[in-house]
Write a structure and sequence with these properties.
- The protein is mainly beta and about 325 residues long.
- It is about 5% helix and about 30% strand.
- The protein has 2 helices and 17 strands.
- The longest helix has 8 residues.
């Protein structure tokens, strides 16, 4: 991806099916023994596939390593605790790759309440915004994301190649929102412009989980009971990334931005889509800027690294609800 091309993903909307909300489950009853205003927020960016299934979401990590055309996309999790907690930030990187290499690729993000029961239900507003140039109208809706199976794009379920998403993580509970938006973009199909100045699209997604009543957030694999090790009563910002490692300007000021890589969804996952029907995105020549623009930011885990270009403009894609599971 370069400064003008937002290849990887630019997350999707499911407005094409006419749904306004997903998982309108009743919130669990308020519990006693509140521990304070704690929360766990996950922010997602990179080559990712979101799939609504009933009242939960599946999240597939598109594996893109060892390719001649683009840099390796490294699946990693950055855990940043509330600085008042005294905990140090941590990064999970090589250990995640070890699980994948071992075939341990079916994961689950679980939330347990303070009496040990699982909370189920992901709240997400899927309806596409009425005007993609008005960033303040329902700014957090998931509908700002681009659903590649919606009417504005492929208008059908796309056939997926098996074993390309590793791991697949079930998101069971929380509020799934747009985190921030790109500047206005043009949409191309087969190399020709399809939507001139399409408007703003989500550049990252966030899952917010209220843990103020003693809830426990656990990310488990088939073989590991929990790989996050979060402390109850502490708030966390957690980044889930599947993108090239960003450059460190202090060590390599001349490093070029990562290559455009939206095409990898077609090359690796949806190979049945011909070149003339493949979509891509580019910043509009005179772009509008939303109030919640995904500005370049200092990396939360490693302040020496600057997102350049900002990986939060490299989100994922989403699919229509239902159908076959990602696995």
């Amino acid at each position: 991806m370069n400064r003008r091309q937002f290849g990887a993903g630019l997350l999707g909307t499911a407005g094409a099916i006419g749904l306004d909300r997903l998982a309108l489950a009743m919130a669990p009853p308020r519990r006693l023994n509140a521990t304070g205003p704690t929360s766990v927020k996950f922010t997602f960016a990179g080559l990712l596939v979101f799939h609504p299934m009933n009242d939960i979401f599946e999240l597939g990590i598109l594996r893109a390593r060892g390719l001649a055309s683009v840099s390796d996309h490294i699946f990693r999790i950055n855990i940043v605790p509330d600085p008042n907690s005294g905990e140090k930030p941590r990064q999970l990187n090589d250990v995640l790759e070890g699980y994948v290499q071992d075939g341990d690729v079916i994961w689950s993000l679980d939330v347990q309440n303070n009496i040990g029961n699982a909370d189920i239900g992901v709240q997400a507003t899927l309806q596409e915004p009425a005007n993609r140039h008005q960033s303040n109208q329902r700014p957090k809706d998931l509908g700002w994301m681009v659903n590649v199976e919606s009417r504005k794009f492929h208008s059908r379920r796309l056939t997926r190649l098996p074993n390309k998403l590793k791991p697949i993580i079930t998101l069971n509970y929380g509020q799934l929102n747009t985190a921030c938006k790109t500047e206005s973009v043009d949409v191309y199909k087969g190399g020709n412009i399809k939507y001139d100045n399409f408007g703003f699209i989500a550049g990252a997604t966030e899952l917010s989980i209220d843990t103020s009543h003693g809830e426990k957030v656990v990310l488990k694999t088939q073989k590991q009971a929990d790989i996050l090790g979060l402390t109850p009563g502490v708030s966390y910002d957690i980044e889930v990334l599947n993108a090239p490692i960003p450059p460190n300007p202090a060590r390599d000021p001349n490093q070029v931005p990562p290559e455009e890589h939206f095409h990898l969804y077609y090359a690796l996952l949806f190979s049945g889509v011909g070149d003339s029907n493949r979509f891509s995105f580019m910043s509009h020549p005179k772009p509008e800027i939303p109030d919640d623009h995904c500005d370049p930011v200092v990396h939360k885990f490693d302040p020496a690294r600057m997102f350049e270009p900002d990986p939060y403009k490299c989100g994922g894609i989403t699919l229509n609800p239902g159908g076959d599971a990602l696995g």
